[in-house]
Amino acid sequence: MKALRVTAPHQFSVVDLPQPSLGPGQVRVRVYQVGICGTDLSLVAGKLPFARFPIVPGHELAGEITEAGPGSSFAVGTRVTANPLQHCGHCPACLAGDIHYCPEVAVLGVVRRDGAFAEEVILDDAMVRLLPDDLSYEEGAMVEPVVIAERTVARAQVQPGDAVAVLGAGNIGLLLIQVARLAGAGRVLVSDVLDYRLELAQRLGADLTVNVSQRDLVEAGREAGGFEVVIDGVGNQQSISQSIQLCNPGGRVVVYGVPPQGDLALPVLEAFRKDLSLHISRLYPRSFDAGIALLQRRQLDLETVITTRIRLAQAPEAIRDLGERRGEMIKILIDPQET
Prior knowledge:
Blueprint: E1 2-8, E2 11-16, E3 26-36, H1 38-44, E4 60-68, E5 79-82, E6 85-86, H2 92-95, E7 106-107, E8 120-124, E9 128-130, H3 137-141, H4 143-156, E10 164-167, H5 171-182, E11 188-192, H6 195-203, E12 208-211, H7 217-224, E13 227-232, H8 237-246, E14 247-255, H9 268-274, E15 277-280, H10 289-296, H11 302-305, E16 306-311, H12 315-323, E17 331-335
Parallel strand pairs: 10-11, 10-13, 11-12, 13-14, 14-15, 16-17
Antiparallel strand pairs: 1-2, 3-4, 3-8, 3-17, 4-5, 5-9, 6-7
Helix pairs in contact: 4-5, 4-10, 7-8
């Protein structure tokens, strides 16, 4: 089986691996599309303290079941996507549907389990989500990032007319613009350090864009009138401080960007003065229904977000280019079956 394997930080290549074994209550999935995301870039750069090597990355996938293990409830030939969270299934969090709170949670292709940068991947039945016939495999590989955007906007409680600032215009940021607009957001500001990303953000509905390498974000935001909601996809010391400064009194800050290792200082006094609500949006619960429904309603522009389509053999170079910001790429989709 061809797969992209990471053996240590910055050490990765496409290799031949033995076909993974199939256990009870599991299915074998032929991967037709898998997305490269920021988490994958952090993993190969050695920036995820909970990652362990060697590992095959990849958790945004769509494919077809080719084999079902004993006790599996799924049939061969079924089109599927995946909720990539491995969980125990019997703790209070799992029973409530909050599988992201499970004390044993692991993430396919990130923590303790090989993922889908490969010709095939093994999924537990509990990870499998049916891919409706009216969605393509490319759309199926976008379900997981759409779910992240939908949950983040829900946690922000975006109301009609709310001014919203989105920090970071990667693939999730570009989806957030669209999902926030669908929730009724009024004025939308988007920040990033790359002009081509900001141009895409404008195409997708941003009213104001700020290249933070050229202009002070807080100053620009205040000139625009501040924001009821600030969504931070950067997750570092500077961005969290900026988020609180950008937020109007009574507003909401939501952080979905993974912070660097170690604690960050929080400007609590400023947040207190403004009576702000601070939320974290990490992973997602069991249901992917809202994200799948968004895609089925054809309300999201995925073509602008999906900038690059490649074969598995091209993945190492694409990951290096994306990590080093070479080329104008946002979402890269890999077809592992195309050699």
